[in-house]
Protein backbone atom coordinates (compact mmCIF):
# COMPACT_ATOMS: atom_id res chain seq x y z
CA UNK A 1 0.00 0.00 0.00
CA UNK A 2 1.32 3.41 -0.85
CA UNK A 3 2.00 6.11 1.68
CA UNK A 4 -1.01 8.32 2.46
CA UNK A 5 -3.61 5.59 1.93
CA UNK A 6 -5.54 3.08 3.96
CA UNK A 7 -7.47 -0.10 3.30
CA UNK A 8 -11.20 -0.32 3.94
CA UNK A 9 -13.50 -3.32 3.79
CA UNK A 10 -16.88 -2.49 2.26
CA UNK A 11 -20.06 -4.53 2.24
CA UNK A 12 -23.24 -5.48 4.03
CA UNK A 13 -24.03 -8.73 5.80
CA UNK A 14 -26.08 -10.92 3.49
CA UNK A 15 -25.21 -8.88 0.39
CA UNK A 16 -24.80 -11.01 -2.74
CA UNK A 17 -21.48 -9.41 -3.64
CA UNK A 18 -20.03 -9.96 -0.16
CA UNK A 19 -17.23 -7.73 1.06
CA UNK A 20 -14.55 -6.01 -1.03
CA UNK A 21 -11.36 -4.25 -0.04
CA UNK A 22 -10.46 -0.81 -1.36
CA UNK A 23 -7.38 1.33 -0.91
CA UNK A 24 -8.38 4.96 -0.45
CA UNK A 25 -6.49 8.20 0.23
CA UNK A 26 -6.29 9.23 3.90
CA UNK A 27 -7.72 12.60 2.82
CA UNK A 28 -11.15 10.90 2.56
CA UNK A 29 -11.22 10.79 6.36
CA UNK A 30 -11.78 14.56 6.41
CA UNK A 31 -14.58 14.60 3.85
CA UNK A 32 -18.10 15.14 5.32
CA UNK A 33 -19.65 12.34 3.23
CA UNK A 34 -17.01 9.88 4.37
CA UNK A 35 -17.27 11.06 7.98
CA UNK A 36 -20.95 10.10 7.98
CA UNK A 37 -19.98 6.64 6.82
CA UNK A 38 -17.39 6.45 9.63
CA UNK A 39 -20.10 7.35 12.15
CA UNK A 40 -22.25 4.52 10.80
CA UNK A 41 -19.30 2.14 11.07
CA UNK A 42 -18.81 3.12 14.72
CA UNK A 43 -22.50 2.48 15.44
CA UNK A 44 -22.46 -0.92 13.72
CA UNK A 45 -19.01 -2.26 14.62
CA UNK A 46 -17.82 -0.13 17.57
CA UNK A 47 -14.33 1.29 17.91
CA UNK A 48 -12.34 -1.92 18.35
CA UNK A 49 -11.69 -3.82 15.17
CA UNK A 50 -8.77 -5.76 13.79
CA UNK A 51 -7.72 -5.60 10.16
CA UNK A 52 -9.01 -3.11 7.60
CA UNK A 53 -11.57 -0.50 8.59
CA UNK A 54 -15.04 -2.01 7.98
CA UNK A 55 -17.66 0.20 6.36
CA UNK A 56 -21.36 -0.79 6.51
CA UNK A 57 -22.24 0.16 2.97
CA UNK A 58 -23.01 -1.75 -0.21
CA UNK A 59 -20.14 -1.89 -2.68
CA UNK A 60 -22.21 -0.04 -5.28
CA UNK A 61 -23.05 2.76 -2.84
CA UNK A 62 -19.39 3.02 -1.80
CA UNK A 63 -18.28 3.28 -5.44
CA UNK A 64 -20.81 6.06 -5.94
CA UNK A 65 -19.63 7.82 -2.78
CA UNK A 66 -16.01 7.56 -3.92
CA UNK A 67 -16.98 8.92 -7.35
CA UNK A 68 -18.73 11.89 -5.71
CA UNK A 69 -15.74 12.65 -3.49
CA UNK A 70 -13.34 12.49 -6.43
CA UNK A 71 -15.51 14.70 -8.65
CA UNK A 72 -16.31 17.31 -6.02
CA UNK A 73 -14.37 20.53 -6.53
CA UNK A 74 -12.27 21.79 -3.64
CA UNK A 75 -13.13 25.19 -2.30
CA UNK A 76 -10.42 27.83 -2.04
CA UNK A 77 -9.96 27.20 1.69
CA UNK A 78 -9.22 23.53 1.04
CA UNK A 79 -12.49 22.23 2.49
CA UNK A 80 -15.02 20.16 0.61
CA UNK A 81 -18.56 21.35 0.11
CA UNK A 82 -20.88 19.17 2.19
CA UNK A 83 -23.69 17.43 0.36
CA UNK A 84 -26.25 14.80 1.22
CA UNK A 85 -25.78 11.13 0.52
CA UNK A 86 -26.68 8.12 2.59
CA UNK A 87 -24.72 4.95 2.40
TrEMBL record:
It comes from Musa troglodytarum (fe'i banana). One of its GO terms (biological process) is response to auxin. Belongs to the ARG7 family. It holds the Pfam family Auxin_inducible. This is Auxin-responsive SAUR protein family member. InterPro entries: SAUR_fam (IPR003676). Coiled coil: none annotated.
Amino acid sequence: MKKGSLTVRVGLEGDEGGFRKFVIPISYLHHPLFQRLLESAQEVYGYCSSGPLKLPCSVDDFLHLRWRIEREPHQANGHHRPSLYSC
